[in-house]
DNA sequence: GCAGTTGTTTTGAATCATTCAAAACAAGGC
DNA sequence: GCCTTGTTTTGAATGATTCAAAACAACTGC
């Protein structure tokens, strides 16, 4: 629904532009894509656009809370539309593929450290590392 | 003990060099330092060295399991000497300071995802985000 | 329906951490 | 003490991301 994406942008106080719709659209069909993948998906449909614009749009959408940015060690930033819940990720140690994992416990911050070193904890981010199905098949 | 660091290097099958000793030394007194901080600490004591050499040394030490590399979102790679146990980290959302947190549960992988998306899970990495004591004092 | 304001995109350049590669060098085995 | 081979040096390259100014277009109000 194009309309729902428009509404989302408006509610977030952002102007509705073709680029933003296209990026939200692309993220709908390819969760955990990086800026470059999104750019390649979106570019054919937009006359003049650039990887910089995509970065810009992604930064705006992240700041507005419409997309979530994750940065697994060793790969560039990934973006996803699933926001608001406190879910986590599994990253393939071989190919870098990312998949969602539901929160281990119930609500955020979902885990409490045994000793917080004096920090005022806000959230807990869990990243699982393992072999994705495809790489299991390939490497045994 | 200089000797223990030498022994560590030898046991790992690495040659003992001034640079490696210096980097291990620096990491002993500044856990969670990034490559640049280590370079600045180490440079005065070594005639000709460069940030590239430090990167090189850190890569070797990480591969040998003598140091652990962590990459919190939004900052450059940090290194620490505490290896072998499965501990986690708290990162300050304001200044990026990192502190250790003991493993939430007992042994690695320390957590199991509710659904593993077909991945063969190897480890779980937990990053807590919050305000460090200094930033709490500064920003209230 | 149109004009103005202001947020957004474009374009181009710059930054930063990190990696790569070849030549100079030095640690440790003999 | 010499040789082999791993390590450091030096210099350049990469790639993701950010910055900045000018061109542009979405929405507001008329």
TrEMBL record, chains A, B:
Sorted alphabetically, which CDD domains does this protein's record hold?
Fur_like
Per its record, what are the GO molecular function terms? DNA-binding transcription factor activity; transcription cis-regulatory region binding; zinc ion binding
Q: Name the residues that bind Zn(2+).
A: 92, 95, 132, 135
Cofactor: how bound: Binds 1 zinc ion per subunit.
Alphabetic keyword roster: Cytoplasm, DNA-binding, Iron, Metal-binding, Repressor, Transcription, Transcription regulation, Zinc
Q: What is its main location?
A: cytoplasm
Pfam families, alphabetized:
FUR
Which family does the similarity line name? Answer: Belongs to the Fur family.
PANTHER family, per the entry: TRANSCRIPTIONAL REGULATOR FURA (PTHR33202:SF18), ZINC UPTAKE REGULATION PROTEIN (PTHR33202)
Q: What is this protein called?
A: Fur family transcriptional regulator, ferric uptake regulator
Species annotation: Herbiconiux ginsengi
